[in-house]
Amino acid sequence: MTGTGYKAPPRVRPEIQQAVFALVKQVGRGEVASYGMIASLLPGVTARMVGHAMRHAGTDGTVPWHRIIGSSGMVSSHEGASRQQTLLTDEGVTFSKSGRVLWRLHRWPGPMPDWLAESDMDPIDVSEIMARWP
Question: Can you name the CATH fold of 14-131?
Answer without folding.
Answer: Arc Repressor Mutant, subunit A (1.10.10)
